[in-house]
Amino acid sequence: MISIRILLYLSTLATLIFGIHTSKLNKTAVTVSQNSSLVLKGSSNVNNFSCHFNMQELKNPIPINYYLASNTIAFEKATLVLHSDAFDCGGKMINKDFQKTLKADAHPQIFLSLKEIKRTNNPDIVNAQVAIEIADITRNYQLPLHLSGTHEWHVTGDLKINLNDFDLETPKKLFGMISVHDIIEIDFNLHLKV
Fold first, then answer.
1. Range of the domain at 134
2. Cα separation, 89 vs 107, whole angstroms
3. Which CATH number fits the domain that encloses residue 92?
4. For the segment 61-105, what is each residue's pLDDT rounded down to a tens digit?
5. What is the enclosing helix (H) or strand (E) of 179?
6. If pLDDT is split at 50, 70 and 90, which confidence band does 45 have?
């Protein structure tokens, strides 16, 4: 059953169970359930903050193209497109600072692309390779994802990124007395339907 949980949102589960190799391009689509959440968490030298993504923005099915191997799924197309203005950080001023930090005027979208999934010895965890594009700069990351479910996949995980890696400057207030830290955590809690 380890291989079944690797699939996340793919419909061809039986192929992986038997470890069959294929170079065929497979296509499907997934829908993100509205009880999902995606949150950016950060902190300053004064307090913590959270920016919640409006999941209504992901109501349309997301196309997925992928290749299968015995321990790996390679994705050619599997991207969440997040509009920066769909994040709510809890207030008008902090939302404005968030938009400015992300250079949302010039780059209004954030792209989270799943590149590859590899199984681990734990049946509930896979290692995922993702590419994140912010302000026209792309960085690659590896992170463990926790998986559960059969008809609807529940995917959870978190990833810490450094805003400096995207040439982004965090806001400073009150003549620099309040400053936001460069490390932001992306918290995934996704319910996916094929």
1. 2-193
2. 18
3. 2.40.128.110
4. 999 999 988 788 899 889 999 999 999 998 898 888 888 889 999
5. strand 178-179
6. low
